Amino acid sequence: MLTGMPSLSHSEQQQAAERIHQLMEQGMSSGEAIALVAQEIRETHKGDRVTVIFDDEDDE
């Protein structure tokens, strides 16, 4: 699987983690919170430099 995510500064990474924690405190599952925040980041950073992550789990 190939996933494109914008490169985030340390501060942006911290903000994303805090947002995930807030969503989880409101009752959202960790997976849902991560997916939502990832989507928000993608939308916010459209056109920015993207980091490509290879997930080898699909190759097993």
Automatic annotation (TrEMBL):
Q: Mind telling me which residue stretches traverse the membrane in this protein?
A: none
Comp. bias (Polar residues): 1-16
Chain intervals for the UniProt region annotation (Disordered): 1-26
Q: Which Pfam families match?
A: UPF0181
What protein family does this chain belong to? Answer: Belongs to the UPF0181 family.
Q: What NCBIfam families does the entry give?
A: PRK05114.1 (NF003476)
Protein name in the entry: UPF0181 protein GW590_08515
Q: Which organism is it from?
A: Rouxiella aceris
